[in-house]
Design goal:
Elements (H helix, E strand, L loop, with lengths): L7 E7 L5 H15 L5 E5 L5 H10 L6 H25 L3 E5 L2 H11 L4 H12 L11 E6 L2 H7 L14 H17 L4 E5 L4 H10 L5
Parallel strand pairs: 1-3, 1-4, 2-3, 4-5
The structure holds thymidine-5'-phosphate (TMP).
The site of thymidine-5'-phosphate has 13 residues, from helix 4.
């Protein structure tokens, strides 16, 4: 249960090429089948609202100052929370987001080097609720694997976006920050060993008991 809201909030995280997108829709369907009386809202960051999707296009394409990038990520997130996430959780729905704030700590913080203090500040501002709590996922799947394996897996079909073009060293730093956060908050994170085959990973996700 999210901070006094009746819904349940799940996020999927991992470095680009970790394979989370292969499973997220199937996992949404699994929950719909398992809980037919609960609505499941599928969404993503950056994005999830018309404004957020416009900001996504800028964020994934335009070169920009690091602080600008972090502020735009959190601006898109504020809109996402106000328009989609909070209303859905208030109505008792299950929300599944392809990425959330852990990605800002991992990419803008770990990867690009923005101070974690600034990110903490933005998180408190954007996710702070009137009762003093922070809106955070109840459960976060972290698809973890070495940067070199993820690089080999990344789609060679479409042109890579701004983040996907970063080098191995960047993705190793992103990975380490994700792992640091998972270690600091083990009750929220479910670590998925993403070096395994999609079939084995799916078996793992299916067998997980979730207390909504
Ligand atoms: P996606 O490819 O998983 O949809 O994610 C889009 C990219 O945006 C991905 O490379 C990670 C990056 N990103 C950040 O850098 N910071 C954030 O806060 C979020 C949500 C995504």
């Amino acid at each position: 249960m999210t901070t006094h809201l009746p819904g349940y909030f799940i996020s999927f995280e991992g470095i680009d090429g970790a394979g989370k997108s292969t499973h997220i829709d199937a996992f949404g369907q699994l929950l719909k089948d398992r809980y037919p009386d609960r609505d499941v809202v599928m969404t993503r960051e950056p994005g999830g609202t018309p404004l957020g999707e416009q900001l996504r296009a800028l964020l994934l394409d335009a070169p920009m100052n690091l602080e600008t990038e972090a502020l735009l990520m959190f601006a898109a997130r504020r809109e996402h929370i106000a328009q989609v996430i909070e209303p859905a959780l208030s109505a008792g729905k299950i929300v599944i987001s392809d990425r959330f704030t852990d990605a800002s700590f991992a990419y803008q913080g770990g990867g690009r080097g923005l101070s974690l203090e600034k990110l903490d500040h933005l998180e408190r501002w954007v996710q702070g609720r009137s009762d003093g709590s922070l809106l955070k996922p109840d459960l976060t799947f972290l698809f973890d694997l070495p940067g070199s394996i993820a690089e080999a897996r990344r789609s060679k079909v479409r042109a890579p976006d701004k983040f996907e073009q970063m080098d191995l060293n960047f993705f190793e730093k992103v990975r380490q920050e994700y792992l640091r956060r998972a270690k600091a908050d083990p009750s929220r994170f479910y670590l998925v060993d993403a070096t395994r085959t999609p079939e084995v990973i799916w078996g793992d996700l299916q067998s997980l008991e979730i207390q909504l």
